[in-house]
Amino acid sequence: MRVVTICGMGFGTSLMLLMSIQEIGRKHGIDITGEAVDLGSYKGKPCDLIAATSEIARQVVSDKPVVFIENLLNKKEIEEKILPFLTK
Amino acid sequence: MLKKILTEDLVALDVTGLTTPEDVIRYSGQLLVKAGKVQPSYVEKMLDAFHSLGPYIVMGPGIAMPHAHAEGDVSCPGISFVRLKEPVVFGHPENDPVVLVFALAGKAHDDHIDILQSLSELLGDEEKQKALTLVADYQELCKLF
Q: Which of these, A13, A27, B44, B112, has the minimum number of CB atoms within 10 Å of its CB?
């Protein structure tokens, strides 16, 4: 599946989040491709799921599911929120 | 990775007298400037990014990661670590106030991935995260990497 993560600049918190999500994917045997982008460039990016920290996620408008993460450093929170959406 | 890149000159423990997010970003950025990692203009960009994009750089409870887009003002990828003696409010609804600050500088879009990966491993470990608030000096800090 393909995940787009978003932050203000597209290479800080979003990249960190993408790495965490990919790690969760590996743990569950699911291959996750994806891209970390900034708020100005997520629109039109093909993906199955969008994830971002809450501050950023509330600004996202998309027909794809958007996952809100409060604590980027809490792998358990990320896993709990991402897991229901993981598909091969 | 962090042991190699987060050298003693890039670490400041129990810094006092900083009261605003701007003070904190400037201080953490100055460490990168003094170590020759970035030009002073990069620090101004971190401040601009905070003003335009808001407090989302407070990525977990008490932990902020100021950063900006490099435009020729980053000499080599780097990171600094500042521990504040007095916590500073950044305006984040969940994760305020900030105590630990990691200012990040990447040169190209993804040459700082290794740094982020190491930082994520360090901060993702609850024990180590707690230890970061307790270590007495740089030598103790290094044991966490």
A: A27
Contacts of B133 in chain A (CB under 8 A): none
pLDDT tens, residue by residue, B65-87: 999 988 889 999 999 999 999 99
pLDDT in tens, B47-63: 999 999 989 999 999 99
Segments forming the whole domain that contains residue B81: 2-142
Q: Does residue A56 contact residue A6 with C-beta atoms inside 8 Å?
A: yes
Contact B9, B80 (CB under 8 A): no
Q: Is B67 labeled as catalytic in the residue annotation?
A: yes
Query: What is the tally of helices (H) and strands (E) in chain A?
Result: 3, 4
* Residue B2 in contact with partner chain A when CB distance is under 8 A: no
Looking at domain A2-85, what is its CATH homologous superfamily? Response regulator (3.40.50.2300)
CATH number of residue B92's parent domain: 3.40.930.10
Min Cα–Cα distance to chain A from B38, Å = 17
Phi, psi (degrees; rounded to nearest 5) at B38: -140, 160
Give the model confidence (pLDDT) of B84-141 as tens digits. Answer: 999 999 999 999 999 999 999 987 766 788 899 999 999 999 999 999 999 999 999 9
- Give me the number of domains chain B comprises: 1
